[in-house]
What does this fold into?
Amino acid sequence: MDAVRISWTPPKDAVSYKIYRETAPNVFTFLTAVAAPATSGVDNDVTLALGNTYKYKVEVRNSLAELIKEAVTTVSLKNCTAMPITMTADTTLAYASSPYCLAGSDATISNPSLTVTLTIEPGVVILFGANRKLTIGQNAQLVSEGTAALPIIFTSSAVTPVVPAWLGVVVASDAINSNPNVSTIAGEAVSETKGTQGSSLAYSVVEYAKTGLKTARSVYVDSSTFRNSWYGDCANSAGGIHIEGPSASDWVVVKSSIFVNNLKTNCGGGAGDVYMTNTHLYAKLNTSVNARNLSNGIGGAFSVETAEQSTFFANSIYDAHSDKGGPCIGLSGGSKMHFIKNNYFSGTKTNNLGGCISSYSIVGFVIKNNTFETTHADTVSGYGGAIYDYGSSAAPTISNNIFKNTYAGGYGGAIYTTNPSTATTISDNVFINTRANTSAADGQGGAIYVARTSSSPLSITNNSFYGSYVQSGGSAYGGAIAIGPYPKSVTIAGNHFKNTWAASGGGAIYLENTPNTGFTFQRNNFVGTRKTSAAGPLNALHNAEDANYTVKDNWWGAVYAATSCEAVASNLCETTQAAKPTLTTNATAAWPLCCAVPTDPNCVGAATLPSYQACE
It folds into this structure.
């Protein structure tokens, strides 16, 4: 009996799939249905025969059972050609001889004295037996470059693979190095070309492996798919691509590729999709779906450890998970900046620190022009619903991002930052319905929580906060911003707070151990900030300790001529301490919004809002 396995890449919002086979011209008969996250189905009807061609259709439906996509493919059943085992000269795997099978031994291409290339023609399928692998060895390179119509497929020979069904493709430390030409501006990768040598994969599919691609050299990956792979050992690694060994001056390029259902489990670090150390990474236009890291490492989709530099540009990451933190991207160590720009993150979560991005003791980062939607740090010890940063040493910047429906079970519904040794800037961001704390635990900062012991400046300017909150239960302070112990030079200016609330106090801002000098709190709008989820008395600012500083030029939602909190209202800027903040030159009207008049030098809030958020 022969069988056909039909595989696909899931579109967003896919819940179920129906598979049909053509039984008469343009007549498709239903075969089977599978549910997400599965990305394949099997036709093992006894009537299938070698030499015949069959046409299949897959229908994709969402949670409402609506058809959102369908695709048709044609397959021919052919005998398998034995895969060459030991290759010492240039070798080509021809489409006409496909599929190739590797059963009883591993395959290796290498030569101690000559450059050799394994070239795989478009459309080739290689079927690997259990525990088999392909190694690109000494002086060798792999050129696996298919086309959109004829992808190259590395897969298991099993009809219904149980991962890890085979071991993957390995580029050894003595293989030929890739040399992509990566252009940078101020350290950030901005463009690249392929280069002239080294292993490359384009329009290739690697699936059901232990690690799809494991490389100790730089590689170039373009328009390829890594799916359904699983690394379950204690070593640091990844289900999709593991990069460990290229020199610090090398660049690895991963672009326009798709990662689906890749998993890292067990005690070591790593990632579901891509794990790398030492070298540079340029990740552009990739899509990751359901990446999972259930081990001890940060980074569910991407983990960048002691790397020189990374640039993540215009990637999309959905439904990723990491136990320790950073289900989208984990950054740790290294000696250069990291850039995360123009990406879309949705539905990601962790049980720990950073619902999308986690960084530990890195030099610094620029996180700009991204959207974080429904990203969670779920548990009571979950800090930073979207971003967690610990100990950056060179000017971390978070600007022009959108945070929507992000959540932390503990502190910092969108952002948690602590102990940087240099200036931190959080500016021009939009926070919509971000939330901190569970009903049974302490939590502060519905959008932002900051704790720092250094004297380096903190700047929170020209952000817009809509409906951010800290719900009841425990210590619930700072509906939008909470600044924890021992801040030094702090500027909170030009922000727009609307309908933010915190059950314990500080409907907009909570300040703990606030400095008596070096604190600027000026020209902000407060509209409807309060202590309760329902409409209630104005409550904007809460001080936990003495507050010998000046609060200047703010609009409180009404005209106040008073110069102290008590003279205005008991809840406006409450504190139980003897030293109170002084209010001066309270605004007599709301400051203009930058989303309406971005060129006005006195405007407040973010200049650019998402299309669904009114400028108000």
